[in-house]
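Lab notebook, bench 4. The sequencing result for the construct came back, and we need a structural model before the next group meeting so we can plan mutations. Quick request posted to the team channel:

Model the 3D structure of this chain.
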Amino acid sequence: MRTVEGKVAVVTGGASGIGLAMGQRFGQAGMQVVLADVLPDRLDEAVKLLRDEGLEVSGVPTDVTKAESVQALADRTVELYGGVHVVCNNAGVGSGAEGYVWQHELNDWRWAMDVNVWGVIHGIRTFVPIMIEQGDEGHVINTSSSNGGLVPMGDTPVYALTKVAVVSLTEGLYAHLRAAGVPIGASVLFPGPGWLRTNLWDAWKTRPDEYAKERPRKTPYPSLEGLEEMMEKAGIEMTYTPLEEIAERVLQGILADRFWLLAPEEAWDKSVQQRADSIINRTNPTYFREWKP
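Done. Here's the predicted structure in token form:
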């Protein structure tokens, strides 16, 4: 896209974290922004925060696991602003699975797949036809993760699986948009390279009943505070990537029609190379993090 000023952006998972940061940056760039989130109260707070900055922002409660809810989001966006030009399929959860992969509950898989993968599928199927019909420039950004999207890690197979899927889905979207000859770009976002202060860590607190755990956890849910404490005891300093930096990366990626939205120096580059070498040389994986259940 040559410019985003005056255009319309939709961001799922937009009430906090990366989604809120993207919505804020889009608004600052002169866009009309629709934030979508499954938590209405948190969404209202996010909309008020950005409106208090003088930004043109609206909120639409949305459950990305439901096709009809995403369609309602699209309908409301067009009703409010007359169209849509940028869509960020950003909503995501960590399922909180524990134990070995064969011990993970089916609902852990279902919840993560429905939000992290089907949420992106619903976003593409719903919004891309609208964007094509408009005949204007547009862009779709799908949020993946270094943990899975770049190197499938052994310690979080559920989450990693979903983020690998997002990368492949976005590659397919990019190829099909080019084949269709439409002026719409596609990008896959890898937040980082450092740790992130987001509500992904707390997703389990609002886990829907339809994906309820089948048995009590044997260990506490992972938390950012617990990780910080563990790292401190090990003498390891945790480096955080500002969410505003990620949002700026997305904006500049849209303007440059850049597919891979990575930090200039990605901490996972070495692991990506090791994985590629393992495939080319037909050797067993050696790039996993050491992990114990």
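The beta strands are 8-12, 32-37, 57-61, 86-89, 138-143, 184-189, 260-261.
Will bring this to the meeting.
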